[in-house]
Amino acid sequence: MTNRRMTDDEFDASTAPFADMNEAAQRGTSLKRGGTGPLGSLNAGSGRNSSGHLPRTLTQVLSEANDRVIRNDLVDYVATPTGFDPLDSFIGGGLRKTELLLLGGAQGIGKTIATLQIARNVAMRPDQYAFYLSYEHTETHLMHRLLCLESVNPPEIDLSRGLKLRDLYHIITTQRAQQFSGREGEPGSLQTILSSNPRTAPALQRISHFSDRLILVKASPAVTTLRSIKEMTARLCEATGGNVTVFVDYLQKIAVHPERPRDENDKVTMIVEGLKDIAMTLDVPVWSIVAADREGLKSKRVHLFHLRGSSALDYESDIAIIMNNKYQILSKDHVTFNPYAAKQFRDWVVWTIEKNRAGRAMQDMEFHLHGSHFAFDQRGQKVQQQLLDDKVLET
Q: Which CATH class is domain 81-155+210-382?
């Protein structure tokens, strides 16, 4: 992304797959706002999102909700599953519109792997779109990660056919070199190389099932502001009938100019309040990665209060999940008692729901990480061992 805002023509080109949906989406989101009483004429004709700043009687709210149910518009009552179990069961079925979910943890714990995999799971649903903004990786690198992820075919996780990045790069460069030298006929495209190789063809085929519904943006910490994120999300909502989930990797990288925050905490406060505003006003779920502060990186177990700008993060988020390596946070008694058995947990990551407005908090679950394939085994379980902080979980 260059140091300027995306033009209308460029954005229209990037959202070309949604062009045919615009008219239907606009019809679907045009809602009745009239009603009796002193506020009836004030609210008549206003849209669902814009009316969030206008006063309405409870009668009008009930009438609008009733109209949506009659039209079989049940988005307020149905969550979008993440595909990770038991996470979905703990957070009420999945991601919900207007909610902000934060994912924190130490560097290298698998936050991007989990987030991109969940975005992929959302986009796998034929009626849902995932909007993934990455301040850390290019769109091409994310595509390469997805090819490795699809090679193990979640949730089956068939490692025997799994691709690592070096495998993928070797296949592409070797095949291209052979074509260039004339030993393999005319030079072919990347898609031709991937579709003709028995190791990459299945992954490419699986990606085709959701590639039109996963929108990627290489965001810039210099120019991709909250305002630009909101504008892009709003246009995607118009094109898709509002069926968009926003993923941000990661929160502290979002640009806040022209505002001038006093310090890091002030900046994080602006950003997290802005993301929550996007979730509320555009009626979409927002999932964002959050980096840990220095104290958190030194701690044996990262908690919500270790995230940079933690007070604002705790207040604004609806759900906050913290990731820790299971081996690192096992109680000393467990490791001392059976150190060999404990080593098997080095590739397991504990996800702790430290905040949950709609359900129980402090729920721990574990998922097996296959880092070289950029994949988690989505079939997790509640932790059964004793962890640090003298916390024993239910079994």
A: alpha beta
